[in-house]
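Per reviewer request, we include the raw input and output of the structure prediction for the construct analysed in the revised manuscript.
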Amino acid sequence: MQCGNGAITQNRPYGNGNECGILGMGKIDRSGAICYICSMNKADQKKLVDYWKKTAEHDYETMAGLFQIGRYDACLFFGHIVLEKTLKALVAHVIGDHAPYTHNLVRLAELANMKLSEEEVEFLREVNSFNMEARYPEEKLAFYCRCTPEYTETYRDKIEDFYKKLCQELKRKNQ
């Protein structure tokens, strides 16, 4: 879809012709499409990065709470979301635009120009599975059974360490 200036837009289920109330950027046309290309500037880019960082922080707290109450499968699902949102903040910072609509952590790390070891790539691939296996009924039971307290604690700790690494990278890029 294109906006009046010919730039590509993305459909959103919200909007009333004013600026986006969720991200505070992007003009919305009558179809509900937001024209990002026409409106992205450094201030909007900062708002976008801050949005991803803030929502990742919220989901990090959720992940920790879910572990505390023994909801291990949901804990790891939220762990994936934490890393996804933090990587999307890095991507937005690096490319100066919205991150693509993907849940693939390895792809997002590539777009963020992260230099990852093979061990880190394998870790992100495993965390990618938490997103898929927690969503679909045919895989959900097997994932639930795999998420013992020990398994979950191991991956929660690895997710936490990688999240801290990503946050440090964001700080470094903002200096």
